[in-house]
Amino acid sequence: MTHPKETWWVALIEVGVIINLVMVAFAYTTWLERKVLGRMQRRFGPNRAGPFGLLQPIADLVKLIRKESFFPASAHEIPYILAPILSTFTALAAFAVIPWGKGWTVHGYYIPGVVSNLPISLILIFALGSIGIYGYIVGGWASDSKYAILGSMRTCAQLVSYEVSLALSVLGVVLMGQSLNLVDIVDKQQTTVWFFIPQFVGLCVFLLGGIAETSRPPFDLPEADTELVAGYHTEYSGMRWGLFQMAEYINMIVLSSLAVTLFFGGWHFPWVPSLDKFGPIWFCLKLAILVNAFIWLRASQPRLRYDQLMRFGWKILLPAATINALVTALLVVWVK
Amino acid sequence: MFDDWLPFAIYGLFSLVIPATMIGASFALATRPKRVVKARTIPFESGVSTGPPVKQRFTVSFYLTAMLFVLFDIEIVFLYPLAVILHELAWFGFLEFLVFILILLVAYVYIWRKGALEWR
To answer: Which chain A residues have a beta carbon less than 8 Å from that of B35?
Structure first.
């Protein structure tokens, strides 16, 4: 894991560019979701603001910022305001360790293909995801409303249950990649085979657990509007509500990028090594396909019941992930 | 070591400042209501709201789920380091892995038979 030294101002510029790109990706994921959902239901989706409704995310932002920042009289003010900031912070920060390119040398300055190349990047992503749960539970508790508290308890129970399967499903990849560093795992896939072939069960568990972890339909029980009004953000409005939505979408983007990194060879192009220098393009393409699959699921699947959800997580996904890890371990030792 | 973490620290700072700025902007730019009536500020409920909810007990299922989470998350914490060096430990490592999973399996079967995995 030796790499040329990175100058601090190169890191600063890179961080600035990447975090803005993540924000743009988030804004246009909301646009894409509304557009695709609309088309799947034989509607047009947003089409007034700009060509094809492309300015819609900007209009949304202006509307949310201008909206009255209302909060209930009984709310605990400081945690109520800090909760959405915490959720968004953990969602955004997790993207820092995702590799999106090979790294380039421009005029003698080395620009790495990942914001921060850490030896424990995989654990860091899961840790940040766990801290993000605090945002939901604190937000729900601080609003001091029946639906918000119920919603936050449900969210917490669901996220905590699926996190176990999610973390276990990746164990097979760690066994094959022999590292917790995402850059190493991507390089390993280039020299052997993309891990979605040997780790197909792992991929299925990872995606199912991931949908539940980002509370996307059909596992969107935290926001089951027929039962809970809006779940933990019932009492939120304006930009604070917007930040919770932002955290949810960015979590989806981070999770899709993690799936691309762990199972689909990251920024590599299959078979043709000379095309690897366009790494970010292939990364974005794979990411877009996965995000579209998430949206497609939302358009086509009905929501589960809460007991079905818990049973599915604990009785099917968890054993499947454990057996997958065990078989992978056996094969790793055997082949060696 | 420190050089690896510096970009992450910068990135973390940025990702903290962005949502804080957005909240700040919404304080500065938001429209204010002309007058605040009491009905606006009581928590939402489907019918007539009587104010904040009375502190009540939660179903034990939530606590049970939390305890199960701790149990299995510890499992994962132990397995990650093992997974990284398993190819060096070879069969010894695999046997240890197997013993660990078997002990866990006993607990898992017990939990299952007790019905703790069913949501009630």
So the answer is: none
